[in-house]
Amino acid sequence: xxxxxxxxxxxxxxxxxxxxxxxxxxxxxxxxxxxxxxxxxxxxxxxxxxxxxxxxxxxxxxxxxxxxxxxxxxxxxxxxxxxxxxxxxxxxxxxxxxxxxxxxxxxxxxxxxxxxxxxxxxxxxxxxxxxxxxxxxxxxxxxxxxxxxxxxxxxxxxxxxxxxxxxxxxxxxxxxxxxxxxxxxxxxxxxxxxxxxxxxxxxxxxxxxxxxxxxxxxxxxxxxxxxxxxxxxxxxxxxxxxxxxxxxxxxxxxxxxxxxxxxxxxxxxxxxxxxx
Length: 276
Fold this sequence. Notes:
This protein is mainly alpha-helical. Helix content is 70%, strand content 0%.
């Protein structure tokens, strides 16, 4: 689903902006992929073009012959990429896709702590032990990230697989919710494929094979991300982000209703140094 302006969605801009930035990044990646595949495909015509130009110029020098051979080499590589489905391009895009999801949600967490006093009053956060000197050495911008780091360790979120690491923190913030099984599996596969691409040169290892048996891989086989696979991953990431936004809508609508009937809950306030 397309993300709309935060005022239309009844969610504060600081909460929805990370997801809008993610969508912009994803759109830019899509355009770059399209331009790159078009450019590589067109290179296949280089030898014919080079021969035509050299023939028209009447150039029979060794340099001219070398240009033709170089054009043939590029064209051969381009044809191989086209035939294989541009594996390196889509591998890089897949790595960036998971990275974008991680950074988007982490930025959302950072903003949530910075802007929601109720989040900072959670027991799991209030129990964080930190020296006065360490806290005072952090800037106001650094403090929310510091809190999230400690919260991830306290809840073991950083040890969980797939979106479990995000859901753990979302639940602490009162934003937990159901995730479609297919969506959860796609994102789990995305994370595992990303890890193999980054840490094992794209070669399937036992962890990937045992974690994602439906991929029908064998140890030592190259993991090639086809365009259709990348599309599946991108759709899954967007669906998950939309899921989180729907949870935000539900929460803010409930809080708005409480306010209308006279709730004394305080609105969110920016994180400030504790002088008490």
